[in-house]
Amino acid sequence: MASARTASKKLLRRGRKTLGLVALGVAVLLIGSLANVVFGDDVGHPPSLTATPTPTEPATAPSPDAPAGTPDDLQNVTALQTLDTLTVKGRAPKTGYSREQFGPRWQDVDRNGCDTRNDILARDLTDITRTGNCRVTTGTLDDPFTGQTIDFIRGQGTSELVQIDHVVALSDAWQKGAQQLSTDQRASFANDPLNLLAVDGSANAQKGDGDAATWLPKNRAFRCDYVARQVAVKAAYNLWVTPAEHDAITRVLNTCPDQPLPASTLSVPSS
Questions:
Q1: Which of 134, 81, 18 lies closest to 250 in space, CA to CA?
Q2: Is 180 helix (H, G, I), strand (E, B) or coil?
Q3: What is the pTM of this model?
Q4: Burial label, 102 (beta-carbon count in 10 A; 0-12, 13-18, 19+)
Q5: pLDDT computed for residue 75 by the predictor
Q6: On the chain, which terminus has fewer CB atoms closer than 10 Å, C or N?
């Protein structure tokens, strides 16, 4: 009898343990279900070990500074085509012209800390030396007007051997539309690198304020470049050409009909 009672007690204890474990399991299941309802199905899930695909890199957006036309469009514009867009008419009177109408000489229009004259010398000469960051003291010019090589040495009696030419002379511009430009536009015109070349001083003096009808560079190999610059400058500043000038430029460009139109690095003021 004693052994029977002992066995009954053991069974009772095992039953209680089993019931306890069952109750615990039910509680865990209930808690998990409630969590899924309240927080969503991702609660308690371990992170996926599957690699997430790397998103494809988006295409590079065009630069906001890019020109509106395509490079091919811009490169295909010729000086001859642009010449046909210029107004053709006679000169206006030279009345009221003075160098001062185009602002102080050799400004720093591009805000690089150097005046325009030294910028052009640095651009057009080779083997240059400087005093400080800007002042060109020596260099060598392959003169586009004559085809000769000229040594530039800054100083009295030597500096004038190399001069800065306005491809479209200021006086010529004054008689062909520059009177209608604003003060800022005329200053830009006088300092625009597109309208400036370092050249042989004597050739520059011979040119004076002549246009293509009265003067062309002795160096025939440079004539297409020269008149193309004149066309580009006049187009940029809304200047006109005379009939004789138009015909002279046409004769030159007919020998190089694909001569591209050079572009300015300076933005023309709107007013």
A1: 81
A2: helix
A3: 0.72
A4: buried
A5: 57
A6: N
